[in-house]
Amino acid sequence: DPTLREVAEPTGRFIGTAINDGLLSNSTYRNIAATEFDSVTAENVMKWDTVEPQRGQFNWSGADRLVQFAQQNDQLVYGHTLVWHSQMPGWLQNGSFSNSEFRTIMTDHVTTQVSRYRGQVQRWDVVNEAFNEDGTFRQSKFYQQLGSSYIADAFRAARAADPNAKLFINDYNTETANAKSDGLYRLVRDLKAQGVPIDGVGFQNHLIVGQVNGSAIQQNLKRFADLGLEVVITELDIRMRTPADSTKLQQQARDYRAVADACLAVSACSGITVWGISDRDSWVPDVFPGEGAACPWDDNYRPKPAYEALRAAF
Ligand code: XIL
């Protein structure tokens, strides 16, 4: 049977996965990651707390491993993420800085990381999760110190560091039209109007089995695409109450198919990344107690109906 990347490549879309750095030494994991996907996202090792654990001290070991893996396997790299309220190092989260010093810390971080991988990372999540559920700006440290201007400044720093990388803003619960996605829509429309260098919007798609509305997702992708932006499904997983059973797994397959169909129906939707390979390695059970089985491969790295549905979509 053809792999996911073999069926996706002729459509011009990429199919990616989040890579857990600690699992690259597992040959089963590594083989699936290499053969099934043509794009990789670092699940954690490109986040600020990993990359700059102490101010001015950089740790690129995991990020370099990811980029090397991608080059070995002829894969794109989706950079995740530069400016985010979560997984910030303690010195940054708890430190006391003037607004101008804080702005410089942020833009220096963006410049340093994007420059290091210039030409090797094709897309960056420059800003992640900037919104509250009601569509107002999240009161992150970035927002508290700099107001919403931090967003434009982060994008400008990223563009200057790698003019060829495509720059994204990424969020969750923005997959369909709602207060949060409306807030995101207004922001990216205004950024475009102001000439801020933004190229795309990432939609995480951490979804729930039986609650996926494919046509609503398609319509929402389309309205962002109509602003002249690329759109990407960046972190797809579809969770259920565990344990799984065949009814739930069949519904999950239909839900995966609906998300893939939504992307494929929108020409500006350039790819789909799933947030992990096997259910055993997924972040879901740690964060949503009693839920899981959200990935395309099961606990034993066997492909699930969701895997077959994804492949059939291309
Ligand atoms: C998650 C990782 O999967 C976990 O390993 C980590 O402990 C926490 O972060 N939105 C994002 C991702 O943008 O970076 C998150 O990844 C999942 C939610």
From TrEMBL:
Catalytic activity, as annotated: Endohydrolysis of (1->4)-beta-D-xylosidic linkages in xylans
Active site: 235
GH10 domain sequence ranges: 1-313
Keyword terms of this UniProt record: Carbohydrate metabolism, Glycosidase, Hydrolase, Polysaccharide degradation, Signal, Xylan degradation
Enzyme Commission code: 3.2.1.8
Similarity remark: Belongs to the glycosyl hydrolase 10 (cellulase F) family.
Protein name: Beta-xylanase
Origin species: Streptomyces macrosporus
Portion of the parent chain present: 38 to 351 of 476
